[in-house]
Amino acid sequence: MRAIHLLPVGDVKHELIVDLKNRLQITFHADALILNSGFDARQFYDEQRGQYNSTSIIRYLKETTGGHVGKRSKAYLAITSHDLFIPILTYVFGEAELAGGVAVASYYRLQNELYGLQPDKQLLIDRLTKEAIHELGHAFGLVHCQTQECVMHTSTYVEDIDLKTDAFCRVCSTLLKNYR
Ligand SMILES: [Zn+2]
Ligand SMILES: [Zn+2]
What residues flank ion ligand 2 with Cβ within 5 A? Predict the structure, then answer.
């Protein structure tokens, strides 16, 4: 059985991470657990950009957890409310090391409030779930998928996330089963 370890980074809403954990267990047929040893996000903060460096978080996760060892059966996913960036992009929703067992997902830009809309708890958890599944898909070895509805379809804007489902298409699903 696969194992997914969730690490809150900074101030993450507890009920959000519990909902996420339950949904990840179902999607990946995995044991998911929330690690209390969440880490301090300040070390990843970039003062000039006012954002957090997602690649540094990935590197830190890799160093402290070792990622998965040998087979693709275990992954660490950091969850944060902070805005993430990589140097060449304005922002990212998340990042993962391909087949490396480590990933990070942010819900900062998944919140309606950021776009001047009413808060929507259900929509937020739906979006975060898709983003988390997408990054974990990478962490377990999947690349981007051309199928529009597939959770491995790439997303640039929050609307792109709303257009896809939280499920793997048949091709990605088969690949994922073989990556063990
Ligand atoms: Zn991706
Ligand atoms: Zn797919």
Answer: 145, 147, 150, 152, 169, 172
Please tell me the number of the ligand nearest to residue 103's CA.
1
Task: Report the alpha-carbon distance of residue 42 to residue 60 in Å, rounded.
Answer: 13
Q: What is the pTM of this model?
A: 0.95
Q: Which residues are catalytic?
A: 135
Q: What domains are defined for the chain?
A: 2-143 (3.40.390.10)
DSSP string, 118-163: ---HHHHHHHHHHHHHHHHHHHTT----S-TTSTTS--SSHHHHHH
Structure tokens at 150: 């597939």
Per-residue pLDDT of 83-132, as tens digits, reads 999 999 999 999 999 999 999 999 999 999 999 999 999 999 999 999 99
Q: Ligand 1 centroid vs 138 CA: distance in angstroms? A: 7
Question: In the chain, how long is the greatest CA-to-CA distance?
Answer: 45
What six digits make up the tokens of 95? 């990042």
Residue 131 Cα to ligand 2 middle (Å): 14
